[in-house]
Amino acid sequence: MRVTPAHQSLAFSRRMLLVGSAQVGLGALLVGRLGYLGISQNDHYRLLSEDNRVQLIPVPPRRGWIIDRNGKPIAINRSSFRVDIIPQQLSDGPRVIRELAQILELSPDELQRVADELKSSRGFQPVSVAENVPYEKYAAIMVRLTELPGVAAARGFNRYYPDGPAVAHLVGYVGTASAKEYEKEKNPLLIIPGFKIGKEGLERSLETSLRGVPGGQRVELTARGKLVRELDPKPDRSGKTVQLTIDQGLQLYAARRMGDQSGALVAMDVATGDMLAYVSMPAYDPNSFSDGIGRTEWRMLSQDDHIPLLNKVTLGLYPSGSTIKPAMALAFLEQGIDPKRRVYCAGGYQIGNRYFRCDAVHGSMDMHSAVERSCNTYFWATGLIADPAKTTEMVHYLGYGEKFDLPVPSQRFGTMPNPDWLMQKYHRKWQGYDSANTSIGQGYVLINPMQLAVMPARLASGKLLKPRLLMAGPRQPAPDVAAKPEHLEIVRSAMAAVVNGSGTAVASKLPLDGIQMAGKTGTAQVFRLESRGHQGNWALRDHALFIAFAPADKPRYAIGCIIEHGGFGASAAAPIVRDTMTYLFDEQKAMDALLPLEQQWGGSLAERNARRSAAFEAAAKFVQSQAQAKAPQPPTT
Amino acid sequence: MISSAIIPQPLARLPWRLIFLVLCIAGIGLLTLYSAAGGSAQPWALKQALIILVFLGVAVGMSWIKESTIKALVFPIYGAIILMLLLTDAMGFVGKGAQRWLDIGFIRLQPSEFMKPAIVLVLARFYELLPAGSIRQWRAIWPAALMIGVPWALILVQPDLGTATMVLLSGITVMFLAGVPMWLFLGGAGLIAAALPIAFTMMHDYQRKRVLIFMDPESDPLGAGYHITQSKIAIGSGGIWGKGYLQGSQSHLDYLPEGHTDFVFATMVEEWGFIGGLVLILAFAFVVRWGMRVAANSRTRFGQLTAAGLTVTIFFYVTINLMMVMGLAPVVGVPLPLVSFGGSAVMTVMLCLGVLMSLERQQRTKSTLA
């Protein structure tokens, strides 16, 4: 076919139609796309656009207070002064920083840190220069603020623990979030200079309540981070106040009364299970931890053989020693063993081919006198005729080896062995000597000091109390202990005789009219049996334990106490419990007992702490100067 | 077109409807540039207004040029532009860098811009000269392919992918309209579709990454995908009615890069919303429709092909830019004519419109002259 101009014109028209249709199609595509982006996806993109436009310069919320059961402060905020640099407004940086360094007396290390942080900062985010600036220096900066462009001096808040070490292991401390913690939470609040989060103890476990909600200055920023204008600020919301069941006065008293000894004391309200004191000593000062602890202080704490960094209340595990005996006695009674049944103590007991030595030759013992005078022979002999499964179950039921639901970051709850457990763990059958060891709280028995208070509280009240730390926590009525009330009464009267009869703790009677304390001493072996008693080497001495409740006839409070390497329970732990118990009934009398002791120890807790750290610092400086004298001088940078 | 006793004949005979559309589009552009500068006529709006007025004057002036004059000039102009392209590339080669400009003392010329209308003119002229019976033969194809291929390659090495693509597309469209057999286009399209996956496997890693980022710009929101991501945010956040004039946060806070040049449409839509974007697209559609009508009404083959080709050039200009800013095409650096700041695109479009107006004038006046 020949193509003519007429054909060509027709072909052009047809192809014009195709091109025109394609144009219409593409035009429709464009309009459709425009509608999709602008109308259908509008919400999504508007959000992204707002994210671009508005940035929040967070204002950290004030941390919630921790108060005691009477509203007395345990952890509060103190206003402090801080100096920051806002990199974006900084001009003539080197001069400004030089002047700041002069006024604030910054060390070269700190200057280096400031320089590094300035380099990696985002422009509008302040860089911290110094925290806890004394008022005079803060004022010196304030008057020169016009000559220091980019410097911001502000009032901030610092965590403050009025009782310092006395509450250290209870509340823990706060600190700057680590890189790992930031990674986990991805919360920009965590990287604001000066913002602290709970690192230990209740500060850590109650973080969500205590932290509050940050407010912030909302600002409009350009893509390059330049401030365009400030928008309406978002108010911050302070953290919630948390009320503890702790009695601040008692807590402080117990901490002071423990002196320089290493140990733990827990006091409970027998009616409710409220924990009134939760003391682990010695302890670090949470105030200096919260400010960022110095290297010297850290070394001092970590090298101390009294392990002030360990929370002994929930993490310290000890053999219960004879404090197990009241529970054992109840277990025997529940199995139908006659309390009048007598065992003759000739100073020891033969089990199989081993002879177990008692502390003394007690003679003829019944249950009451065996508890009162802590006769091992009675419990060995009786333990052998009892059912070990039932016996150990009763002791566990009363609290030893039990895990409690408490807002503490970690808890070690020890072991209350029983035949099944032994089979599972060590693949062997329960033997007579296992019954014997368990009967006097040795062998596999491991408990924490919390259980040491729960046990007497349950025996005293006849209720299966659960320890509580938070006032706001659920207050459930505790069920009765599954034991006959008259059996409990037998145990209680035996415990009363320990302190008030002719028992092991008669030296620790309450100095109060009409109020008697019931208790039980315990001495937990640290080393071999042969070296028991008075040991010259502190670290080899036995742990001293004491459990108690008072008043003996109408119990209101229970206390458990352990003094590490304190020797006999009666001599080291019982007097501390006596004075602490006294404090609950008569504060003045308790203080009168404490002050002469403190004088003898060389000052109050705070004074002794200060003196010790000064000595340590001096020693550290001496060692350092010695090392420097030997080593060639490092080049100054 | 406007008949009135008061208005003098030469003025009344101008295609006022088109001029009105052009002024409309340019007005939207100037308003947007004023906003993009943070509410200031400096540094863009005022300068752009001047550029548009000058080139609109040139275009109107061109409308008096006769078709025969244009025909006579087509090959010399095309040859001259090829020469300039060669010179530009050579200078770029010597200067070891990208080179798109030719500095001739008082003015800097971008020869690749001239090539956009020129390729249409030269192909229209070629197919006019080609005997009608040869259109299905090999000699209808290879000279045209050569005429497109040489400038395309010269522009591509500058490198200027956007302009090269436009020259290619305009040229192919003219070939299509001239009646070159359909199988050539379908076969070509099929071949490209088949070659794409192979090309993808042969690409360098960084090239492949670019393609992937075009497919999913959010995968690299701070890097190569930044432009397109921010542009989509600007357009999408405008909603139906926009954020209000001078209220666009994306452009005013510099989140949208190139908000006054290639991405000016995003700046505009952020403030005027879907409605604003629709008005601008419709205005361009009317310009294109006007051009297509000129082509349909042309009585000469050169007139038909030229008018249609130049209209398609304008169409591609607008469409590629809009597809780019809305995330439908990769970022190739094609501005939105008459709206984006810069003289080159205005010049090209006004040259196209000038030729179109000349063709349109002759359609109306031929009958009276003949």
CATH-defined topology of the largest domain in chain A: Beta-lactamase
- Distance, first to last CA of chain B: 20 Å
* CATH architecture designation of the largest domain in chain A: 3-Layer(aba) Sandwich
Cα Rg of chain A: 35 Å
Query: Average pLDDT of chain B, to the nearest integer?
Result: 87
CATH superfamily of the largest domain in chain A: DD-peptidase/beta-lactamase superfamily
Please tell me how large the radius of gyration of chain B is: 21 Å
Number of strands of chain B: 2
CATH class category name of the largest domain in chain A? Alpha Beta
Q: Helicity range of the residues of chain B?
A: 55-70%
**Portion of residues within helices of chain A:** 40-55%
Give the count of structural domains of chain A.
3
Individual helix count of chain B: 14
Give a short account of the largest sheet of chain A. 5 strands, mixed
Major beta-sheet overview of chain B = 2 strands, antiparallel
Strand tally of chain A is: 19
Shape of chain B: globular
| CA(first)-CA(last) distance of chain A | 94 Å
Total discrete domains of chain B: 1
Organism (chain A): Sphingomonas alba
Subcellular location (chain A): Cell membrane; Membrane
Membrane topology (chain A): Single-pass membrane protein
GO molecular function, one term (chain A): serine-type D-Ala-D-Ala carboxypeptidase activity
